[in-house]
Amino acid sequence: MLKLATLAALLAQLTWAQHGTVGRPCEVSTDCGTGNYCAGNKRCACLTTYKVRSIDLPLKNSDEVRKCAPMRIAS
User: Fold this and answer.
1) Please, which pLDDT band fits residue 53 given cuts at 50, 70 and 90?
2) Pair 52, 22: CB distance under 8 Å
3) Tens-place pLDDT, residues 5-52
4) Measured on CA atoms in the order 24, 35, 9, 12, is the torsion positive or negative?
5) What's the whole-model pTM score?
6) 3-state secondary structure of 65
């Protein structure tokens, strides 16, 4: 059975699936996903209206995944 922390991390990863991964190789912005664009270095980066969020993967020998999330606007 999955541990609660592992399950939470997996759910977080699924929630962020629609957002592109920061630093991922790209050719055009559509390669990057929601909230990202393909920067001049051919790597996905966050749009100015998005910020980088980190997601730790529960997998052995894995690096953390950085995704772009919409910034909240104060009301």
Assistant:
1) confident
2) yes
3) 676 665 555 554 556 789 999 999 999 988 899 999 999 999 999 888
4) negative
5) 0.62
6) strand
Q: Are 50 and 68 in contact (CB under 8 A)?
A: yes
Domain boundaries, the chain: 18-68
- Among candidate residues 34, 30, 66, the one with its CA nearest the CA of residue 47: 34
Long-range contacts: 63-72, Cβ < 8 Å, 24+? 65/13, 65/16, 65/21, 66/21, 66/22, 66/23, 67/16, 67/19, 67/20, 67/21, 67/22, 67/35, 68/19, 68/20, 68/22, 68/34, 68/35, 68/36, 69/16, 69/19, 69/35, 70/35
The pair of structure tokens assigned to 63 is 């690096």
pLDDT digits over 27-39, tens only?
A: 999 999 888 999 9
Secondary structure letter of residue 41 according to DSSP: T
